Predict the structure.
Amino acid sequence: SYVLTQPPSVSVAPGQTARITCGGNNIGSKSVHWYQQKPGQAPVLVVYDDSDRPSGIPERFSGSNSGNTATLTISRVEAGDEADYYCQVWDSSSDHRGVFGGGTKLTVL
Amino acid sequence: QITLKESGPTLVKPTQTLTLTCTFSGFSLSTSGVGVGWIRQPPGKALEWLALIYWDDDKRYSPSLKSRLTITKDTSKNQVVLTMTNMDPVDTATYYCAHRPDTAMVTNWFDPWGQGTLVTVSS
């Protein structure tokens, strides 16, 4: 089964750049989607198809995907960006299933 | 504006069957490419994808839970129902339904999500 690996936590000072990685075997061949989840709230899509942003998501959120690693980059981090972030792919190799990473807690120092 | 809302029991006993309903507005499940998925999250843990139903009634299930899950749709009522049999305390989680946009079929993402409903499994 396909596995996505995320670091449990990332810390960054306000105004700096946060990079959250999502590792998977040849993940560059898949489309990666990213969700932000604040405490007590439902997840919100912040990046889809590796690097596209839904309407209403700030340009500070961007994504990239190559090789075995996809990355969510948050520029000029704000206190309000503190949340859990999850990557997700659709694994069509065998059972056609959704796969989520284990999540990364972003702490704004 | 697309909205979804989950409903169902908050407490079920071990071995019982859980039935959850997702009632949505702002889109139709008869529109080509559209779908509705279910995702759950145990307290303090990560998201876990469960099932997805497409506009054409094609269905996909998590391989690890496939024998226990059934997803159906009622297009006229704008509802999707998920049933999970033989519930166990480890199934305690917040269950979310979410909209699958009408995009290319090679991938699936979910936007937006319902608010979620916490289901506790306990005797």
Chain B has a mean pLDDT of 96. The radius of gyration of chain B is 14 Å.
